[in-house]
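Protein data:
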Amino acid sequence: MSAMHKEMDVAKRAKVIEWLKTEVVDHVARLFKALWEGSTTRVSDSLASLIVSSYILGRRLGVSYRNLDDTILEKLKKHKQEGHQLEDWYQDISTLEDHLRKR
């Protein structure tokens, strides 16, 4: 690959990462609007889009999907051990951990 092609590839990769970052921000904004409107369908769609964009951004930054999944599971384990309030009140941490492990 020529030096010019390498430079173009680096520029393209940087541009894609910047675009994905704006996608994440846009999905957060859409989520907040959906919450304000009280639309369960739009909330679900916004959350799904945010998760997809986050996974893809991670991949573009060199984090594999498997690594991200493992990191999420470790974070959930840590929250449980530290007595996170959502675990104490609703068992949300355990429920999510169980869900992810069963996939």
User: Anything to note?
Assistant: The mean pLDDT is 94. The CA atoms of residues 27 and 50 lie 5 Å apart. The longest helix spans residues 3-37.
